[in-house]
Every structure is written in structure tokens, then in C-alpha cells.
Amino acid sequence: MKTELTINGRSRAIDVEPRMTLLDALRDAAGLKGTHAGCEHGVCGACTVIVDGDAVRSCLMFAVQCDGMEITTIEGVAADPGELDVVQDSFCETHGLQCGYCTPGMVLAAKALLAVEKDPSDEQIRDAISGNICRCTGYGQIVEAIRLAAKRLRESNTAAMEAGE
Amino acid sequence: MSGPAKLFQGKYVSTDRRVREDPRFVAGHGRFVQDIDRPGMLHVALVAAQAPAARIVKIDPSAALAMEGVVDVIDGAELSAAVNPLMNGLDTPKVQRFPLAVGQNRYAGEWVAAVVAETRALAEDAAEKVRVETEKLGFVIDAEQALEEGATPVHPEHGSNLLLDRTFDWGPVDEDFARSDDSLKLRVTWGRNSTVPIETFGVICEWNAWEKVLDVWASIQMPKYADQIARALKLHGNEVRVHYDVDVGGSYGVKRGIKQTVLAGYLARKLGRPVRLIEDRLENMRSGDAHGPERIFDIEVAFDRDGTVNAMRMRALDNAGAYAGRAPFQLGKPIGAIVGPYRINSVQYRAMSVTTNKAVQEAVRGFGQAPTNYAIETMMDRVADHLGIDRLDLRQKNLIRPDEFPYEIPSGSKYDSGDYQAVIAKVLEQGDYDGMRAERDRLRAEGMCAGIGVAACLEPSGGNSSFEPLLNPANRTSTWMEGSRVNIDALGDVTVAIHTTSSGQGHETLAATVVGEVLGVDPDRVRVVRPDSLGSLPGNSPVGSRMAIMLGGAAANAARDIIRQAIAIGAHLMDADPGDCSYDSGTVIGPGGAEIAWTEIVDVAHRRFHDLPKGTNPGLTASFIQQVPTGETLPKDGKAQMYPCYSFEFHLVLVAFAPVLAKPELRRYVIGHDCGTVINPHIVKGMTLGGIAHGIGATLLEEFAYDGEGQLMTQSFLDYLMPSSHEVPEVQIVKHCTPSPLTEFGQKGSGESGYLGSPAAISGAIHDALKPWGIHLNKLPIRMAAISDAIAAAEEKGHP
Ligand code: FES
Ligand code: FES
């Protein structure tokens, strides 16, 4: 059936089976491969996207449920090809990743946190990513990345982007 | 080797540079196997066996085949008639393994049939319609029961469940026991866990009938992958082309999906269309054949009253699961560090591997070293307890001293270098051991259980494969090489080729840094490529903590060859002796200070044959194949030089929990780490932190637990619990550098760091906390319930 999804600011009509998850719709119908499948039962957070401002697990939603909602995937985060946003750049600065598989979900979980909390404590940071499992990093450099991103965002959005180059 | 190696001072090596792989991943532009679409691609879903062992009477695919979009259903009978059995490292020819069960299945969840359809969803629907008629057989789950007289054999043709039983005697064990003041025995068990990457295993195979080549894209970390595919599918070696430019979503050893690949490869050839097999989480956990070691250690240790440990007898009994594969070799690698960092004079080691009706075991981070280190360090704690000596003092007493390197241990391996005392001293100081003890006592006074744990251990690195010929004399492996190629193009720019996939280890950064360092070129200007397997030099993939040493060595040596060629060209242009010329960041400097610029050298190499010195090939390119340092000979008399380099780590942990709830909380975590010269500090730090997190999981949470009926109980992320950002504390890393004398820059390996010592340290801390009750919890993982039950039971008996 047809459904209308607004993905990264662009509205697209896609044809999905009613049982198709948002995860599969994003990857297979919309061709956005940055959202990853880890468990497909709502535990690992690899499939995290932002729907109407909240970080959600796209494996637990059906695509048709998202009709008319605003969805941000990892592909919608960087301003332009080759230009990282502050959170992404902070992950690169602290090496808050290894294999990169959990990373899109982590970046989006971080963005959702930083959208509502400008000066998060470590506990808040750990809380915000506690539903995202990373098997590579042990989380240390991810926490550092989010700390750094928060600091940079506070200091100034645009200046911070150059600062990490 | 003479004297300690000097600290390496580089321009790029060891500096705080970003990891070049990171941007594509934070942008969501990794290229994982699931992201690859091939035109006309078909999808596979699997039919799994229900019982742990059953004879397959009949498989009826007709209902499935009748469904829309279903292309084919195959079973083990069809497949085994067409392909060779999968590689078996041991000399057990009757223990045969195919991607689908043949005749009978040997564990619950084993794949008995594969359904191929136009989409994965259709394949899954159809898999439910495949009718499998079976007759249940006897089964065995427990390793010790599997050894018993009359136990049900998992492979009746093999005759027993024993895959391997080798005893090694290194040194005067009996004499050392006889002359020692005292001895004690202990048993510890390492539970079955694994690395469980967030990306499951996946593979796409495509047969190109016009070129006669099988293209393979896979999330793989496997030595000799292409060779194994060719052998199993009865193809020539050059008829398999593995694409190494696929990002792997975590592996840490286990992504060895050979059965998946052979299955998909067979289907791709048969059906003439690309075939994709991506495990779902259930398939991955239950039947991806990626569980780790499960091992019972029985140890007897002899020591003097002053704390000197003289001798050890260790029996390691490993539950390999249903088929042999490479898993039993995980009993072999730890032989290279069988005494840990200690001067233990003699060792008897008995390595036993048995089959049971559990999923197949695969290589896991450390290849058996983490369980062994846990056993050795627990032994050291027990000896200290027994003698009433402080655990640190006991270790100090037995540590190999810095002036004793290279140090040959009883099993024949030489440790290259180390300064264990220095690392421990730094940790105690920078980690504020005194403060930690005060904190422990304060917590205890508040009624909490609190304890401190320590662990000192080694990470053998450099990954040769000496355990293969040691455990299986028919195997004559004495090289485990790695190749790299450096090209200078006609514009003078540098490209390095690496010949494997990566799963987060940062090999592109490694190769660029090393080549940049040698050539004096900014690593950011160095391009890194990954040719496919047919365009690659020989290599053995990133296993055994080897790439810093082996790929680093290969790339550095190839770059050195470029310099040699550049100097030859420059010298010729200046009419000088190459021996009188030098190279500095692209410029060749002649006697008297004359200079030939890089552009000129490149121009000669690429365009002006007439200006080349005699006997020099045009083009500036160099390949180098690195042999493992020290890997010169086959094992002799049961002794082997295992890996060349030995990194050291020392863990110091404070654990606290409430006596009733007993949820261990890691209040402080300090690790001292010495892996020689670090190529990229961010990468090494991440590996160490990730390793500790994995160790926390293995110690407290993670287990593939089977019930009495032979069913896996932890087959989703709801039951197989992994540490989240709440369970992993902030970790303080204390750095130290003792360079290796055997490698290019003094580097050693670090891919397994953290994981190799954290289980012993955390378990030790829990035991320190439980001291008042005198409780020993001898099996990992140590679950909350195990602790609280043990406390309750002890209190019932009137302790403390
Ligand atoms: S894939 Fe959605 S939570 Fe794991
Ligand atoms: S970076 Fe590999 S799982 Fe997080």
C-alpha cells in the first residue's frame, strides 16, 4: 500500500506492505542504507532514527504508522557531502566508534539528547545511549564525543565546525 | 636481539591523529554487505532443526515450492553430494561438516534446509512450510558427560566425542612438585559466550558464467577465506573473487561464515543468479556457528611458603560443540603464554576438546587466551589466599624481571620484551590504589560488599599459526604472512594496498600512518585501497592481534623499497654511489648536499627509461610480504615459538554490591597497558576499552546457556545480556611503552587488550568482597543470582 513519509525534509510516496517495518522501508524502499538492522527486536538501537523529534527504534514501527511524520535518518544529518555536523565531527575527534555499525544510531541518539539538553551530565549522556549497544568501543569514546559535541554546540554552532578540522 | 629496543620517535606514528575511516561511518556511508544490491538477487532463509539430535527421515519442500516467489529449496543430501566438507583443522576425517545437516542434525537450530526466494520475507514464509520428518536421537550437552564411557557420540562414525587429547610436559614438573613446600588444586569454568557483533554475518555470492568466477561480498574476518571457498565448492583458486572493500560490522574473531558462504556460493552457481544470505538475529545466535570457547580448567599448582610458584599442572577441557572446525586450536594458542607473566619453572598442560550437541564454536577475541588468563590469575589469587600473602606481593614475587628478556617460557616461546613491574607501579600510583582501598573499607563499613581485584596478563600478538602443527603434526604450517603494496603514481602521489577486510580495527589508518612515516609524507595524502582477493598479495586477515605488526611491517617495508628505488634513481642522476645518498621526505640528497626533487624522481621512473640506472624497472612500485618475526621453524619436541610479541596489561578494579540484591557495580576501573609503540593512540585506546566491556560481559552477563533438553535458552538480545553504557564504567588507562625489538617501530598487538585480563580482575574483586563468607564462585559468568544465593547459603551455615 502507498504511504507518504517525510524523510530528511523530503516527502516521498512509497509502496510498502502493511507488515513492513520502518527499518526495512527506509533501507529497501527509500534506499537509505545508513539505518542498520542489529536485532530487529528492539534491544540494540542500531536502527535508531528520529521521528518527530524523538529517537525511536525503526525495527519496532511499521512504515505505515509513520505516515505524515517527520523522519530524520543519519543521511539527513550532514549538511553537505563531505561536511560533517558537530556531533558527527565530535565522534571523529574522539574516535567514538570502530566498526561503525552502531554509529548512525549513536549519533542520532546523541542528537536527540542534545536537542533538549544543552549541558548534559555524564549520567545523562550514558542514559541517552543506554538503549544503543556498541560491541566495539566500550562506550568511553562515545561519551567523550557527546561531551565534546555539547561543549562545541554551546560555544557556537558554526565556529565549532571549523574547530575540529 | 641485543639490549632493550629504543623508544620510537616518529612524525606521525604515535601522534594524536584522527582515524581516517571514521567520517564515512558517522555519515552513514559505510558499505556493509547488507547495503549491497545485485541485480536479480535472490534471498535465503533457513529451516532449523528442532531437537538437539535427530535422524532426518524426509524433507518435503513441495508446499514451500508452491508458494509465490519461491525459487528453490535444498537440503543437506543435495548439497553434500555437490560440495566438499568444510575445512577441519584436526586429523579427524570422520567428523565431517557441511553447511546443511546431512543424514542427522547435531544441535538444536542446525540448518537442515535452505529456501531461496525473490525476497527475504517470502523465503521466511516459505521456510515455515518445509516439512521435516525426523526421528529423535540421543544427545549430550555437557563436556564431561560427553567424555564418559558409553556417552552418546555426536559423530557415531568417529567413535567417541574426543576430538583432541594432547598432554605436554615442559620441564621437571614432578620434581618441582616434590620439592615445593605446598600445593593446591582448583577448578574454574569459562562459560560459553561470544563476541556477538551487532551486525550478523552476511554474504552475497554471484556466479559469472562468462568469466567463470564466483564473486563474493561478505562481512568476513577469516584467514584463507577464498581458498576455503574454492576447496569446498571444487573450484580453482582463481575462480573465487572475494571483494575486500566491504565494511564488517564488528567481528572480534567470530565472523568466519564459511558454511554460509559455501551454501550461498553453491546456490548462486546452481541458480545462475546472485544469492544473498544475511542471518537474522535468531539464526545468528542459535546456528551461525559463532559461539566462543567453553572450558573447564582443573589446575594443580606447587609453590613455596615464601610465595614462589614453581610448577603448574593444567587440564583444559573444551566443549567444541557439534563439529570440529578451527575451534580446538583455541586450546593451542595459550601455550605461547601458558605461564602468564610469571617465572613458573615447569608446566604440564593437557588440552582436551570434545564434541557435544551444542552449536559450533568459532574463534573469539584472544583465541583461547582470555579463558586461560582467567584461570592463571584465579590460581594466583588462590595461592595468595592460601599462604596469607597479599595478592600483589605474590605476583611481584613471581613476575619476570625486565632484565630477563627475551625470556623463554617452559613451552618454548620467547617473550620479546616487557617491564611488568613498571606498569604495575604506575597503575598503583596513578590509579590511587591507597585511595581505592580506603574507598573499599568505607563501603564495607556502610554494609556494602566491596572488593578489589587485580590481574596481570599477556596478550600474545603477531599471529603466526604455530599451534596448528603443534596440535596436529600432519599440519606443516610455518608461515602466516601478510602482504602490502605501495605505488607511486605519475603525479608522485602515494597509494597503499591492503589485502583483507576490516571490522573496525582501522587498518586504513594504520597503513597510511606507517607509509607516511617511512616516506615522510602526510598520511592524509596517502590513498588506501583494497583490491579484491584475485588482485591481492597473500595474507592471513586481521586475526591474532597481528595487523600492527604484520600489515604495519609489510607496508613499512614496501615503503622502504620505494626509498631504495628513489635513491638509486637520484644517485644515478647525480652520478653518485647510492650508498652515499640519502632520502628525506621525497628528496634524494647526494654527497655534498646536491638534491634531486621527488618530481624529478617520479618523472624518471614513469617516463624516462633512458635515465634509469641499469637493471631498474620503470614505475615506482613495491610489494612486500612480511613473514611473522621469529616464525622460522616447526614445533619440536612439543615446544613451539608461538606469537612473536607480548603486550602486557594490569587491571585494578573496585567492585561493590549490596549483599541481598548482589548486582556488582564497577566503582573504579584502572588498566595499565603496554603494547610497545602505539601507531594510533585513539585506535589502541578504543580496542582496550572495548575489550574491557567485552570482558565485563563475559564475567557478569553473557552466556549461551542450554537447558537439559539441549535447547539454547539465550537466543535473542532479551536473554543474552550485553553490557550497555550503564554497566561499563569510565576506565582510566595508564600507558607504558616497552618497544618490541622484533618489529618495525617497536609496536606489538593490541586487538585483544582489555578482554584478556578483565574477567580475572572482576572475578577477583567479587571474591575479595565475598571474603567474609569464604565463598568461591568458580564459573563465569557470575550472575547476580549466583552471588546472592551463595551469600544466603553461607549465612544459613552460620557464615560469617
Ligand atoms: S534493530 Fe532495532 S533495536 Fe535492534
Ligand atoms: S562501533 Fe562497532 S558496534 Fe559500535
CATH class of the largest domain in chain A: Mainly Alpha
Main beta-sheet annotation of chain B? 7 strands, mixed
Q: Most extensive chain contact? A: A-B, 57 and 56 residues
Low-confidence stretches of chain B: none
Task: Give Rg of chain A in angstroms.
Answer: 16 Å
CATH topology name of the domain at 1-30 and 416-462 and 644-800 in chain B, in short, is Aldehyde Oxidoreductase, domain 4
CATH superfamily of the domain at 1-30 and 416-462 and 644-800 in chain B: Aldehyde oxidase/xanthine dehydrogenase, molybdopterin binding domain
Describe this structure in words.
The complex is a heterodimer of chains A (165) and B (800). Chain A is of the alpha+beta class. Chain A folds into two domains: 2-76, Roll (Ubiquitin-like (UB roll)); 86-162, [2Fe-2S]-binding domain (DNA polymerase, domain 1, Orthogonal Bundle). Helices cover 37% and strands 14% of the residues of chain A. Chain A has six helices and five strands, in the order E-E-H-E-E-E-H-H-H-H-H. The longest helix of chain A is centred in the last third of the chain and has 16 residues, at 140-155. Chain A starts with a strand and ends with a helix. Chain B is of the alpha+beta class and 800 residues long. Among the domains of chain B are: 1-30 and 416-462 and 644-800, Aldehyde Oxidoreductase, domain 4; 481-626, Aldehyde oxidase/xanthine dehydrogenase, molybdopterin binding domain (Aldehyde Oxidoreductase, domain 4), CATH 3.30.365. Helix content of chain B is 27%, strand content 22%. In chain B, the strands form seven sheets. Chain B has a seven-stranded mixed sheet with strand order 3-5-1-12-9-10-11. Chain B has a five-stranded mixed sheet with strand order 7-15-14-13-8. A four-stranded mixed sheet of chain B has the order 18-26-27-28, with helices on both faces. In chain B, helix 7 packs across helix 8 (258-271), helix 10 packs parallel to helix 19 (758-769) and helix 18 (681-701) packs across helix 19 (758-769). Chain B is globular, with a radius of gyration of 27 Å. The two termini of chain B are 54 Å apart. The mean pLDDT of chain B is 97. At the A-B interface, helix 2, helix 3, helix 4 and helix 5 of A face helix 1 and helix 18 of B. The structure holds FE2/S2 (inorganic) cluster (FES) (2 copies). Residues 37-40, 42-47, 57, 59 of chain A line the site of one FE2/S2 (inorganic) cluster.
